[in-house]
Design a protein that fits this description.
335 residues; TIM Barrel; binds iron/sulfur cluster; binds S-adenosylmethionine; 10 helices; globular; alpha/beta; 13-stranded mixed beta sheet; single chain
Length: 335
């Protein structure tokens, strides 16, 4: 068996996030410009290549696979990929196959996803107000996403809502969203907005809203208990005793999780980013395409890349020009 993936800081890499497309049917203001230019098709890994790539990682000890994008469910033929990945769930090599989605296509795919072995999905939703939703996603329509959530719950999928915390935009919905999620049995995670991409201020619907403030606001209304649970990523969790609900906080800007980092991210072109906050990356597409019959060069390239995983990242809002800023969009690395 090939040796497992252990980085230079003794962290086992067991979690792979894979972007399967850079395209999306929304244009969220903090994520994409309205007139995005997308990659030519030949740059993208084919569904077969995605399968080979993910299977190689699973063979090296990756136990959790999260499919993201862009919007993963707009990739043509994506269910073929999910269906094919389910063999790794059946074999026990993969513990979880999941995805992050904007929810627009869930009504169509929820049953198929469940049949492929998906049990949980993260759905991004920043507001429950139709007009605000249209403003923040530019092209999205709230009822379509709400239908998708209904279908997903009917299909038996557990849902976690991810909301980007935006000052002056969804601050006033903190309690409405909390109660709404509680009433539907959904967990809720707040994400701090990150300095990604090249959006000018005119495109920002809101500004940085510190999750410390979100937590403090919640504590005014609820009994908030810190949970010891760690995901190996930037999320911290609390329980609201009155609703029994789990609330997460993702603060990618603080350096408080790097030591337990268990993950790497792959773009839809087969570039492996070893750290969300660093530009360091390794091209895995060339070793994959250059050796169609033999995975050995790919596996060697994966090991070499993991050997370069940095200790931590370098986002920092306190510096003048957001020095830690990385120029790529979240839709490229897949959040
Ligand atoms: N399209 C899918 C979706 O929206 O869930 C998956 C890809 S999206 C890039 C993944 C996550 O990144 C979403 O929850 C989105 O809100 C978040 N995101 C995008 N840009 C962000 C930014 N600048 N700061 C913080 N979160 C961001
Ligand atoms: Fe699309 Fe997700 Fe980015 Fe919104 S956050 S534009 S839904 S990829």
């Amino acid at each position: 068996m090939a040796p497992r993936l252990i980085d230079p800081f003794a962290r086992a890499i067991t979690y792979l996030r894979v972007s399967v497309t850079d395209r999306c049917d929304f244009r969220c203001v903090y994520c994409m410009a309205e007139n995005m230019t997308f990659l030519p098709k030949k740059e993208l890994l084919t569904l077969e290549e995605l399968d080979r790539m993910c299977s190689a990682f699973i063979g090296l000890g990756v136990e959790k696979l999260r499919i993201t994008g862009g919007e993963p469910l707009v990739r043509k033929g994506i269910m073929t990929f999910f269906n094919s990945m389910s063999r790794h769930l059946d074999s026990g090599a993969l513990q979880e196959l999941t995805l992050t989605t904007n929810g627009s296509q869930l009504a169509r795919y929820a049953d198929d996803l469940y049949a492929a072995g998906v049990r949980r999905v993260n759905v991004s939703l920043d507001t429950l107000d139709e007009d605000k939703f249209a403003r923040v996603t530019r092209w999205g329509r709230l009822p379509q996403v709400l239908n998708g959530l209904d279908a997903a719950q009917r299909a038996g999928l557990r849902i976690k809502i991810n909301a980007v915390a935006l000052k002056g935009f969804n601050e006033d919905e903190l309690f409405t969203m909390t109660e709404w999620c509680a009433s539907r049995g959904m967990d809720l995670t707040w994400i701090e907005v990150m300095p990604m991409g090249d959006l000018g201020n005119e495109d920002r619907v809101g500004q940085y809203w510190s999750l410390k403030d979100v937590r403090a606001m919640l504590a005014e209304q609820y009994t908030v208990t810190d949970l010891a649970e760690r995901s190996g990523g930037p999320a911290r969790y609390v329980r609201l005793e009155e609703t029994g609900q789990k609330i997460g906080f993702i603060t990618p800007l603080s350096h408080n999780f790097c030591e337990s980092c268990n993950r790497v991210r792959m773009t839809c072109t087969g570039e492996l980013y070893m750290c969300l906050g660093q530009e360091d990356r390794a091209d895995l597409r060339a070793p994959l395409r250059d050796s169609p019959e033999d995975d050995a060069p790919l596996i060697a390239a994966i090991h070499k890349a993991i050997g370069l995983k940095p200790k931590g990242h370098d986002f920092d809002y306190s510096r003048q020009r957001a020095d830690g800023q990385v120029s790529r969009h979240m839709s490229h690395t897949g959040g």
